[in-house]
Amino acid sequence: MKNKTTDTTAANAAAKETTLDDLGHSPDALAQRKAELLALLAQTAPELISDNQLNVAKLQELLGEDRVGSEEHYELSWAGKTAARREIQKTSSHTLRPDANNPAQAHHMLIEGENLEVLRVLQKSYYGKVKMIYIDPPYNTGNDSFVYPDNYSETLDEYQRRTGEKNEAGFLNKQNLWKKNSKESGQYHSAWLSMMYPRLYLARNLLRDDGVIFISIDDNEATNLKLLCDEVFGAENFVSQVVWQRSKKGDSKLIANVHEYILCIVKNRHFALNNGNWRLPKQGADQVLEKYAELRSRFGAEHDTIRVEMQAWFKQLAQDDPRKAHKHYNWSDERGLYFAADFAGPDDGRASRPRHEIFHPVTSKPCKKPSTGWRWDEEKTKWAMAQNPPRIHFGPDETTIPTRKSYLFEIDSEPYSSVFYQDGRSATLEVEELVGKGCFPFPKNTSVIGDLVKLVTQPGDITLDFFAGSGSTAQTIMDLNIEQGGNRQSISVQMPEVLDEDSEAYKAGYRTIADITRARIDKVIAKLKAEHPDKTAKLACAHFTLAPSNFKVWRGDANSAEALREQLQLFQSAEKQATGTEDQPAQTAMLAELLLKHGLGALGVHAISKPTDMAGATVYRVLMPDNTLMLLCFDPYTEALKDELVQAKPAQVVMLNSCFVGPKADELLSNLQLELAGLEIGLTVI
Which of 408, 578, 581, 648 is the most buried (most CB within 10 A)? Predict the structure, then answer.
């Protein structure tokens, strides 16, 4: 893709940054990281930077010899790591082609395509915007098939197969693309690490500064994954390796392995702590408080009666009912439902524990003290007694040791535990109800993913799953939006891996894993719309396919006069031969690509386009993040069109070079550039 840009104002800063490489290829992730590092050094130690170059000798001098590593140092290394690092530097000219039946606007999106290439394509529009990533990658059990090249010297044909282009039958060539990584392989762990490394690196770029990634894994690669994440995210940003017990028993000649892990890593610990909740509601607490509110409305300030009613209600609950875990919350006062909790000091042998007098409010006599003294000092005790109602609970007289009031509404949440049990079979049943029995083995529980989402996200946040599988993460987000009335958004990426013909999924009519993903999402949407019509009017998922660019890409290796002439002739029009259909015009595909590569997001999801007619031409109106207007037009240019464009007062206009036709095409373009520049309107001509 080749473009010419004219910008004259600060308001069009984003348009100013639109360059040949920006629109033609995805950003170079490693180059971006280097630029960030240089900017950070320039701010914190400007003496190290001169002419945008780092003075390594000065850096070593500043750090001191004890902080400069020797040639031998601790690091994770594997066969192919250098080649895997080169994958990070590769850019992509690919785009996301919207499905012809996409809704005009949707909160969620499903992308079919090889996930490394999709991550590259997403960099421009979603860099630093994703709050949470959850992935369930191949566990490398010895039976997994996943994308990894035997070497990194690819032919064009190999590259096109790997990046999502399909064969004549419309499917990816599984035999060439997907390889079984058996334990007998000489590079068994290396192949898996080479597959994961560039994906995690690019995923990190997409996270917000307070973003979090959760990764499911088992013992096969848990150790390597932890070390890999330490390298990509920094060891200081590791949060926990959560143990998920998926079964109560298992068969084994040695030890029954009934667990797996969820690694939790933040992009930046400081931002994650300051901007995150990191607590979950206590199970059953909300329902207990609802019951209490009902009793308060019936009995008002008759707190003794309310206590009796609460005790009777707790007693009739089943032992495994999560509400019963809060049965000790049965006292009531004007502040709320509380538990009379011990506030004696810990038995740590300290003689200096507070032992001040606390006087009974009825007898006015000093109350009995615990043998270990009070947990609170005298100042806090006076504060608690001065509250209305007091935050200290007394017995009938001074012979009973006072306790503190622990209100359920104040402590109805708790930290996420690093060990939990959740039967994995429930996820299989959930999926089978939607897509058919035996169609997708070992799916992930939406309840487990849901807790992770609740733990770290807020309404409006974007979540990403680039090993989408059966679509568990997408369903989780949609279910949670109904439950909490929020508007979290999900991006799901799934490779259209061809199914074996003897599989249950193939017999059920599915042809690729992505078909299953799409079917589940569609059926979840239909189910939620039927069950909650008042909450789901706007519930929709837009579908996209990884596809080659709609525009020609300038060849940088044209090093002869003849090759350069061929390139110039080729670029008389930047767009390729129209590949649109009656259902989806080529303009829609070009519009989607331009919005994505301008950093505005996916068409109909994060970039909402409203076509309008201007002087007989179709013009697409898009609101940019700074609330200014971008206009895009692919129809022939006329003077009348120019007048309407000027009247609309956009911040940016985007047109194709082929829009300017006739013997005076260059003159028309020059005049338009001058006039728009005079009005401080940016113009990008592709």
Answer: 408
- Which one is predicted more confidently, 468 or 48? 468
The pairing of strands 207-217 and 130-135 is parallel
pTM across the whole model: 0.82
What is the DSSP annotation of 14-37?
Answer: HHHT--HHHHHS---HHHHHHHHH
One-letter amino acid identity for 531? E
Say which DSSP state 35 is in: H
The 3-state secondary structure of 222-242, one letter per residue = HHHHHHHHHHHHCHHHEEEEE
Residue 573: the pLDDT is 59
Q: Tell me the percentage of the chain whose pLDDT exceeds 70.
A: 85
Q: Give the per-residue pLDDT at 533.
A: 95
**Nearby residues of 472 by Cβ (< 8 Å), 6 or more positions away:** 136, 427, 431, 443, 444, 445, 446, 449, 465
Q: How far is CA 307 from CA 289, 315, 317, 369, 378, in A?
A: 13, 12, 16, 26, 30
Size (the chain), residues: 686
Radius of gyration of the chain (CA): 31
∠ CA 134-202-427, nearest 5°, is: 15
Cα 626 → chain centroid: 23
The tokens 């150790």 sit on which residue? 223
Strand 95-98: give its sheet, edge to edge: 95-98, 541-547, 108-112, 489-494, 462-465, 130-135, 207-217, 259-266, 238-245, 419-421
User: Which of 169-173, 298-302, 508-512, 550-554 bottoms out in mean pLDDT, i.e. has the lowest?
Assistant: 169-173
Location of structure tokens 């875990």: 325
Task: Give me the mean pLDDT over the 156-178 stretch.
Answer: 46
Tokens standing for 352? 């200096």
Segment among 74-78, 225-229, 507-511 with least mean pLDDT: 74-78
- Name the amino acid, one letter, at 389: P
Segment 76-114, tens digit of pLDDT: 999 999 999 999 989 899 999 999 999 999 999 999 999
Tokens, residue 116: 């490394």
Identify the pLDDT of residue 173.
Answer: 42
Two structure tokens written together for 577: 């031969």
Please count the other Cβ atoms lying within 10 Å of the Cβ belonging to residue 528: 18
Cα distances (Å, whole numbers) of residue 354 to 342, 344, 351, 375, 509 = 15, 10, 9, 7, 73
Nearest 5°: phi and psi at 413? -130, 165
Contact between 106 and 540 under an 8 Å Cβ cutoff? The reply is yes
pLDDT tens digits, residue range 42-69? 877 888 787 778 887 777 777 776 666 6
Strand order in the sheet with 629-633: 4-6, 682-685, 652-655, 629-633, 617-623, 609-614
Q: Which tokens is 683 given?
A: 């113009």
Pairing of strands 462-465, 489-494: parallel
Closest Cα partner for 590 from 605, 572, 603? 603
- Pick the closest to residue 203 from 216, 193, 194, 212 (CA basis): 212
Q: Is residue 414 a contact partner of residue 282, using CB atoms and an 8 Å limit?
A: yes
Q: What is the mean pLDDT of residues 513-524?
A: 96
Amino acid at site 89 = Q
> Residue 542: what pLDDT?
97
Report helix angle 472-484 to 513-531, nearest 10: 10
**H-state helical runs in 140-187:** 156-162, 174-177
